[in-house]
Automatic annotation (TrEMBL), chain A:
<feature type="domain" description="UBA">
    <location>
        <begin position="458"/>
        <end position="503"/>
    </location>
</feature>
<keyword id="KW-0256">Endoplasmic reticulum</keyword>
<dbReference type="InterPro" id="IPR015496">
    <property type="entry name" value="Ubiquilin"/>
</dbReference>
<protein>
    <recommendedName>
        <fullName>Ubiquilin-4</fullName>
    </recommendedName>
</protein>
<keyword id="KW-0963">Cytoplasm</keyword>
<feature type="domain" description="Ubiquitin-like">
    <location>
        <begin position="26"/>
        <end position="96"/>
    </location>
</feature>
<feature type="region of interest" description="Disordered">
    <location>
        <begin position="294"/>
        <end position="378"/>
    </location>
</feature>
<dbReference type="GO" id="GO:0031410">
    <property type="term" value="C:cytoplasmic vesicle"/>
</dbReference>
<feature type="compositionally biased region" description="Low complexity">
    <location>
        <begin position="100"/>
        <end position="119"/>
    </location>
</feature>
From TrEMBL, chain B:
<dbReference type="GO" id="GO:0070646">
    <property type="term" value="P:protein modification by small protein removal"/>
</dbReference>
<dbReference type="Pfam" id="PF05903">
    <property type="entry name" value="Peptidase_C97"/>
</dbReference>
<dbReference type="GO" id="GO:0008474">
    <property type="term" value="F:palmitoyl-(protein) hydrolase activity"/>
</dbReference>
<dbReference type="GO" id="GO:0006508">
    <property type="term" value="P:proteolysis"/>
</dbReference>
<dbReference type="GO" id="GO:0008233">
    <property type="term" value="F:peptidase activity"/>
</dbReference>
<dbReference type="InterPro" id="IPR008580">
    <property type="entry name" value="PPPDE_dom"/>
</dbReference>
<keyword id="KW-0645">Protease</keyword>
<keyword id="KW-0378">Hydrolase</keyword>
<comment type="similarity">
    <text>Belongs to the DeSI family.</text>
</comment>
Length: 506, 169
């Protein structure tokens, strides 16, 4: 109890604290970058007393401590109450290293030797960075401080586009501009189409169909017009359509033929009415569905018009005996999950071309890759890709990427069961269960496509393994011919069989 | 009370990574309206600081590939000097905010910005930003996309990485 000399101050502090019992002890959390501790202190303590406690707990010298609360630095002479520090609040702490660099950089700490700050989680006696931050050391030679904001300026052709892109905040305008650019530069279109990624996407009929079907508006359409679902379900048709979409020249040819056929139809008595009827029944809902996706953007018509100039007139005659409308879906999803990580959004792009007879879904091949271009990250990525198709393949076939994709596509766990893996979002799964499954499948397909469709690098044999087996089980023993047929039909077994039968296998 | 130093203004730069596409497409894809995919950074002492797949980085304000921010929020003022701040950042970068700790959903640029904002000013960043991951994850599509997105690290080029031996400029 009573020791002599030390009593007084001790008693004093005791009484102070006892008196402070009325002022209470508060628990303040002290947070360092690495750590946090709760410290009990009297409410009316001064900052220096607080620091005393802290230095004990964190094993640092008092003058190394810098306390920050609400943006203010707590000075020794202040009290906690002055700053409004109450029970349960958090105060930030930075423990200064010995260095006295005035330039504000932690440069000099490097000279303070590689004090192993790794094992310093508790205590943080020397949190000053000595080791690396686990990141590439700042040899930032290229990003100079005087970097122009528009980095794409150096990229040549697309710089103009990027300026447009970055200047405009309006999505619609962007699209419109993109289309104009694309149309004024036909090479770009063919570049896009030649892009192996786009091509591989188009060569997978199932995927296309899934994507179309997954679109809620399409689903609505399909309910109203069963013919549409027929169209989609006919693999032959889909395949043809996709071939056409892939090949712009073929597309034009087709369109011309159709126009001619249509004008012939018109001349048949009663034919015109039939045409008109068909238009109102089928085409219009599709148009509006396609347009809806863009919030009825009037500009889409503008953009689409010039693109389908060859087809415009046919709109009035319209009608199209369903065969060979443009299958390629609205949602040509460019789920290019950018491995380079420049963009997070997996965006499904939709074309905004005015739907027309031979192009009922309003696909403008020029806008197939459209949405992808809208973020500068994507722009530069696409630029690089179109310049160097190999790059894309390399990117996708990077071992890490591949394995990830493959494991993703094979892993059934990825697709959340209807009940949803996350316990939290319970309400949504049920109503969305339908879409959910569709989406899951869609995702799976896409993943498979990515995984296996840098199977452009894989041999066809590997790709068509399953189909080959089926064919040989059916009795087509000529593996070579089977393979050829499969390649030609893109893996479609039925079509392959037709081919084989047609060519009289030995 | 005597002021230690002059105070420094602290700003929050907000970028929409989707450039408007999220606003357009989110109702279709996710079933709910998201106005953007937000990336944020703290601007103080005439520099922009942010966290990405490469760790904590800095650059001149608006100097990343993303260009100028979509929104700027004034977070307040701070007495913290640049020296102390750099110490603080270095510590952070060694521990909780090293590059490999980046997680698109749980521990991303906005997590960092939020923490730094509180350190500097005591204020948090607007909640619509920090709520974004959970908003996305609460949709079925978000859940499906999650494994892919988890592997994506946002690292806007055009920056210097802050490290102990770096003379960040």
């Amino acid at each position: 109890m009573a020791e002599n000399s030390g009593t007084d101050p001790a008693v004093e502090t005791n009484t102070e604290e006892n008196a402070a019992a009325s002022a209470t002890i508060i628990k303040v959390t002290v947070k360092t970058p690495k750590d946090k501790e709760e410290i009990a202190i009297a409410e009316d303590s001064s900052v220096s007393q607080f620091k005393e406690e802290i230095s004990k707990r964190f094993k640092a010298k008092q003058d190394q401590l810098v306390l920050i609360f609400a943006g203010k630095i707590l000075k020794d002479g202040d009290t906690l109450g002055q700053h409004g520090i109450k029970d349960g609040l958090t105060v930030h702490l930075v423990i200064k290293t010995a260095q006295k660099s005035s330039s504000g950089s932690s440069q000099t700490s490097a000279s303070s030797g590689p004090g192993p700050s790794q094992g310093n989680t508790a205590g943080t006696a020397n949190p000053s960075p000595a080791g690396n931050l686990g990141t590439p050391q700042g040899s930032g030679p290229s990003p100079t401080p005087t970097q122009p904001p528009n980095i794409l300026a150096g990229f040549g052709d697309l710089s103009g586009l990027s300026n447009l892109g970055m200047g405009s905040a309006n999505f619609m305008e962007l699209q419109q501009q993109m289309q104009r650019q694309l149309m004024s530069n036909p090479e770009m279109l063919s570049q896009i189409m030649e892009n192996p990624l786009v091509q591989s996407m188009m060569s997978n009929p199932d995927l296309m169909r899934q994507m179309i079907v997954a679109n809620p508006q399409m689903q609505q359409l399909m309910e109203r017009n069963p013919e549409i679902s027929h169209m989609l379900n006919n693999p032959e048709l889909m395949r043809q359509t996709m071939e056409l979409a892939r090949n712009p020249a073929m597309m034009q040819e087709m369109m011309r033929n159709q126009d001619r056929a249509l004008s012939n139809l018109e001349s048949i008595p009663g034919g015109y009415n039939a045409l008109r009827r068909m238009y109102t029944d089928i085409q219009e809902p599709m148009f509006s569905a396609a347009r809806e996706q863009f919030g009825n953007n009037p500009f889409s018509a503008l953009g689409g018009n010039t693109d389908n100039s060859g087809v415009q007139p046919s709109r009035t005659e319209n009608r199209e005996p369903l065969p060979n409308p443009w299958g390629p879906p609205d949602a040509s999803a460019a789920t290019t999950t950018t491995a380079s990580g420049t963009a997070t959004t997996t965006s499904s792009t939709t074309s905004s071309t005015t739907p027309s007879v031979s192009n009922p879904l309003g696909i403008s091949s020029s806008s197939l890759g459209n949405g992808m271009f809208n973020s500068p990250g994507m722009q530069s990525l696409m630029q690089q890709i179109s310049e160097n198709p190999q790059l894309m393949q390399n990117m996708l076939s990077a071992p890490y990427m591949r394995t990830m994709m493959q494991s993703l596509s094979q892993n059934p766990d990825i697709n959340p069961p209807p009940s949803g893996p996350a316990p939290a979002p319970a309400p949504t799964p049920t109503p969305a269960a339908g879409t959910n499954t569709a989406q899951q499948q869609l995702m799976q397909q896409m993943l498979q496509m990515f995984a296996g469709g840098n199977a452009l690098t894989q041999t066809p044999e590997v790709r068509f393994q399953q189909q080959l087996e089926q064919l040989s089980a059916m009795g087509f023993i000529n593996r070579e011919a089977n393979l050829q047929a499969l390649i030609a039909t893109g893996g479609d077994i039925n079509a392959a069989i037709e081919r084989l039968l047609g060519s009289q296998p030995s | 009370m005597e002021q230690h130093d002059s105070t420094f203004g602290v700003q929050l730069f907000i970028y929409d990574l989707s450039r408007g596409m999220a606003r357009q497409l989110s109702p279709i894809m996710l079933g709910k309206q998201l106005d953007g995919i937000w990336h944020t950074s703290i601007v103080v002492y005439g520099e922009e600081f942010f966290y990405g797949g490469a760790g904590i980085s800095s650059c001149p304000p608006g100097g990343t590939m993303l260009g100028p921010p979509d929104t700027v929020v004034q977070l307040g003022n701070t007495e913290v000097t640049e020296e102390i701040f750099m110490d603080y950042l270095s510590s952070l970068g060694e521990t909780t905010y090293s590059g490999d700790k980046y997680r698109l959903f749980e521990h991303n640029c906005n997590t960092f910005t939020n923490e730094v904002a509180q350190f500097l000013t005591g204020n948090k960043i607007p909640s619509y930003i920090t709520d974004l991951p959970s908003e996305v994850l609460s949709t079925p599509f978000g859940q499906v996309l999650r494994p892919i997105l988890d592997s994506i690290h946002i690292a806007p080029p055009g920056r210097n990485v802050i490290s102990s031996q770096n003379n960040h400029s």
